[in-house]
């Protein structure tokens, strides 16, 4: 219980800082809307039916917005030397990692909801009918966001005291995201096409396995990535 | 191990490697028969497959040395990891260049998004990140640790990428040597391939030992300067 309360304390601290400054949330929110606008004008609707590629664009938008916001997880804290204080506090570093994964997942999930609304309005997207469709969509979003955040939370630490700054993060993270993109996009496309649950079950299982592997690897390697 | 002994080892592997490479090229151009369905372009297989063999071994070495480096903190393990990663990059590049040459004639396209090609390309980028992290971190010790983390995560991601991309249809030829029913290759082709694997492995060990010893000298010089 004590471990979980430490995880929650770290997550709560991050969310509180974010709610007071609204720095990342504003940038990510604005970026989500603007990327929806750009995607809309980048597609020739006389050639391509927007609804068929919208689920793919939703995940591309999520990844780009996530890169923008989560790439600054540690640099904000490092600017105020708060990161050093956090590392010197008597908490285990894996609890710190899980706390950051939790807060960033909540942050990105709220942005994904905004992206869905933006795409529904701009692309006239029809959401899946029935409760099973909604549960499946929620499951894919939750697992997709968790897997993305678990790897971003680990590798964003690279940007601290780095001559390339945050520009190094996409080079490191994008190749690792291919399995996540394949399963989230495939599952989301099938959910929007109202296909049976059996067709996305395999994708959900693979996503769950990816989340598990990345979380275990992240918690084990976090101290090597974050310590000076 | 002292420098002169290391030099002797690398020289021995180098001489054997060059001899094996010459033998391989003789076999490829004058000895092995032309494959019936793919024709002369199939001969690139004897260079393409060994380059991937060495690339995957070297990335395994990177992950192993990185993991033990994080555990023990021995600088020699980091030197071995970075040396293996450099070798891996060279042989991955050879594999990526020779694959499309074959693919253009066999498949009619330079590139297809089939599992093994995709994995190869992503591996190249994962290890590009490995080198970028090392060079861009202000604290060199932290750079080594971060590179080790990237090396381990990269290797963990390999099976995930392969399984995920395999969900899409694969065009790549099936395994002809490590096949569950035994090798399906003609004997002379198998012999040429085995010479290729030996030649590339010897060249890799030679390059590894030369580069590893210069890396150690470089680090010792830097320590003296500090």
Can you give keywords for this protein?
heterodimer, A: 228 residues, globular, B: mainly alpha, 6 helices
Structure characterization notes:
- The complex is a heterodimer of chains A (228) and B (226).
- Chain A has 228 residues and is mainly alpha-helical.
- Chain A has one domain.
- In chain A, 79% of the residues lie in helices and 0% in strands.
- Chain A has 10 helices and no strands.
- Chain A has helices spanning 2-21, 23-42, 50-70, 73-79, 82-88, 93-122, 131-155, 168-173, 178-192, 198-226.
- In chain A, helix 2 packs parallel to helix 6 (93-122), helix 3 runs antiparallel to helix 6 and helix 7 runs parallel beside helix 10 (198-226).
- By secondary structure, chain B is mainly α.
- Chain B has one domain (3-170, 186-225).
- In chain B, helix 2 (45-72) runs parallel beside helix 6 (187-225) and helix 3 packs antiparallel against helix 4.
- Chain B starts with a helix and ends with a helix.
- At the A-B interface, helix 7, helix 8, helix 9 and helix 10 of A face helix 4 and helix 5 of B.
Range of helix content of chain A: over 70%
Integer count of domains of chain B: 1
Low-confidence stretches of chain B: none
Mean pLDDT of chain A: 87
Series of H and E elements of chain A: HHHHHHHHHH
Number of folding domains of chain A?
1
Structural class of chain B: mainly alpha
Fraction of residues in β-strands of chain A: under 5%
Greatest interface and its participating residue counts? A-B, 31 and 31 residues
| Global shape of chain A | globular
Largest sheet composition of chain A: none
Helix content of chain B: over 70%
Query: Segments of chain A where pLDDT lies below 50 for 5+ residues?
Result: none
The largest pleated sheet of chain B is described as: none
Q: Beta-strand percentage of chain B?
A: under 5%
Number of strands of chain A: 0
pLDDT averaged residue by residue of chain B: 83
Total number of beta strands of chain B: 0
């Amino acid at each position: 219980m004590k471990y979980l309360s430490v995880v929650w304390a770290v997550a709560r601290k991050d969310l509180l800082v974010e709610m007071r400054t609204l720095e990342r949330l504003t940038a990510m929110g604005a970026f989500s809307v603007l990327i929806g606008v750009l995607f809309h004008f980048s597609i020739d609707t006389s050639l391509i039916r927007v609804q068929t590629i919208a689920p793919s664009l939703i995940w591309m938008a999520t990844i780009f917005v996530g890169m923008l916001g989560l790439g600054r997880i540690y640099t904000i804290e490092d600017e105020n030397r708060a990161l050093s204080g956090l590392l010197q506090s008597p908490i285990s570093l894996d609890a710190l990692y899980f706390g950051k994964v939790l807060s960033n997942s909540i942050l990105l999930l709220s942005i994904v909801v905004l992206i869905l609304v933006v795409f529904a309005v701009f692309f006239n997207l029809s959401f899946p009918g029935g409760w099973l469709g909604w549960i499946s969509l929620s499951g894919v979003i939750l697992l997709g966001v968790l897997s993305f955040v678990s790897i971003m939370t680990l590798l964003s630490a690279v940007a601290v005291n780095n001559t390339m700054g945050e520009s190094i993060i996409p080079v490191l993270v994008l190749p690792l995201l291919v399995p996540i993109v394949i399963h989230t996009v495939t599952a989301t496309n099938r959910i929007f096409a109202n296909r049976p649950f059996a067709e996305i079950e395999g994708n959900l299982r693979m996503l769950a396995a990816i989340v598990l592997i990345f979380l275990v690897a992240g918690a084990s390697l976090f101290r090597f990535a974050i310590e000076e | 191990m002292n420098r002169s002994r290391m030099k002797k080892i690398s020289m021995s592997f180098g001489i054997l490697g060059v001899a094996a490479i010459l033998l391989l090229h003789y076999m490829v151009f004058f000895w092995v028969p032309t494959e019936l369905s793919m024709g002369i372009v199939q001969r690139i297989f004897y260079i393409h497959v060994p380059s991937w063999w060495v690339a995957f071994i070297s990335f395994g070495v990177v992950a192993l040395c990185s993991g033990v480096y994080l555990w023990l903190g021995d600088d020699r393990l980091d030197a071995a990891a970075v040396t293996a990663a450099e070798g891996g990059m060279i042989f991955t590049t050879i594999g990526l260049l020779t694959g499309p040459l074959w693919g253009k004639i066999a498949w009619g396209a330079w590139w297809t998004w089939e599992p093994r090609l995709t994995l190869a390309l992503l591996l190249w980028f994962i290890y590009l990140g490995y080198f970028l992290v090392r060079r861009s971190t202000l604290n060199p010790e932290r750079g080594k640790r971060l590179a080790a983390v990237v090396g381990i995560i990269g290797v963990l991601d390999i099976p995930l990428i392969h399984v995920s991309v395999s969900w899409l249809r694969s065009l790549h030829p099936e395994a002809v040597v490590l096949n569950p029913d035994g090798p399906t290759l003609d004997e002379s082709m198998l012999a040429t391939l085995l010479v290729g694997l030996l030649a590339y492995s010897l060249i890799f060990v030679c390059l590894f030992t030369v580069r590893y010893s210069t890396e150690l000298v470089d680090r010792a010089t830097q320590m003296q300067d500090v």
